[in-house]
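// run 5 | inverse folding | seed 20
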């Protein structure tokens, strides 16, 4: 498992992305990745956007297994990734955020507040409308 997490840093984006998808599947079936939560959280501090997004996505997938409330304890750090300068990265994160919303109902207000206050003006107009649609889709179910 540790090797798979290390492969998330691989400069070969195709290999790293395949590993990400494999790990996301694993999280649907078991809590095997949960013991590596702190390593995933550390990914959110990486200077490279794609590394942060991978960490964010996997943390979201672990919400189902978060018996120690590590997501709750680090929600501000986790949600900070939604402020990324790259709109495509934000959209990838928004796509997985529903996992936290499903399994961590107690975080709904914090997440909803963050979503309502995202600053979209830094993105191109075409990206703004896509992110806005993503946000509306999420918020309509809260």
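// decoded
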């Amino acid at each position: 498992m540790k090797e798979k997490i290390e492969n998330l840093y691989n400069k070969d984006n195709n290999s790293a992305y395949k590993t990400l998808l494999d790990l996301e599947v694993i999280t649907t079936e078991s809590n095997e990745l949960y013991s590596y939560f702190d390593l995933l959280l550390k990914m959110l501090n990486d200077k490279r956007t794609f590394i942060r997004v991978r960490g964010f996505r996997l943390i979201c997938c672990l919400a189902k297994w978060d018996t120690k409330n590590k997501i709750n304890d680090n929600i501000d750090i986790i949600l900070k990734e939604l402020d990324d300068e790259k709109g495509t990265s934000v959209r990838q994160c928004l796509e997985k955020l529903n996992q936290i919303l499903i399994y961590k109902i107690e975080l709904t207000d914090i997440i909803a507040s963050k979503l309502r206050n995202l600053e979209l003006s830094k993105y191109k107009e075409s990206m703004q409308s896509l992110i806005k649609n993503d946000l509306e889709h999420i918020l309509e179910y809260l």
